[in-house]
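Interim report, section 4.2 (structural modelling).
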Amino acid sequence: MEDQAQGPGSKVSARRRLIRGAFAAPAALTLYSGSVAARSINNCVARETSGMTPPAPGPVAAPDTFVRVQLQKFQKSPTASYPNAWSRWVRGFDVSSLLASGQTVFVSGTSTTSTNWYLYDKGSASAYALTPIGTIIGTTPVEGTTVQSASQWVALRVASNGDIVGVVGINSTTGTSAVYQSCWTSFRVG
Amino acid sequence: MPRFARVEGALVEPVGHLWAAFSAATGETALLNDESAAILEILEPGPASTAQVCAQLSTDSGIAVEVLLPIVEASWANLAAAGLVRTLLEPATIPG
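Predicted structure of the assembly:
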């Protein structure tokens, strides 16, 4: 029986699709389970972080929390000295916006503010070439206004006392995310 | 006699020869055949018992109600597990 070749906007009726003289057992096959996906994502994060170098010891009474923030990328106009002048940062505002009311998060003992910037990757030849990774900058980086939010996300590991105790890759020069992109597909900020 | 209701927020859309049904209650999406989708369609205006559902299915399919009753009765658990229908408990009565 032809499907209802009705005009646009007409609703297709399952009852009209039933074949006269036949009735199969009603079937419902689950295609996608949100709860299964959530468990899968948590397993993905746990698997990715299991081989990491443990962060500095912190309170162990409560488990650490992972939060995802997007990197901000700055790029200065190329110069002879800095032909590829770019750097990537974690914006303090993105961290503070995730905090519950009354909570504070700290980096290296300094409380975060929405105006702080944290150097994540100094780039190959940026103005921050001599600046240690993880340095807190209290003003917008000198490269200028944000070129774009980098298509990369990092996982900040936050101890129960509010300390950001880890961003995998921050002490290396690779600038890789703490967790592979695929683990974060279904996470939402806020 | 229990009645069955379509779960609020359930969305059913045709996908080729089948139907995709999303349950807002569970966040799950299920693939339905015409028979399951027809049952949900019958429940859309309001709750109904198995017999009432079968009466309408009998009109649509030409199959006798007696034949449909065990088939539909057996399907409620699957549809409930998919988060698409729920059983309405009959109010308890105190014998007078």
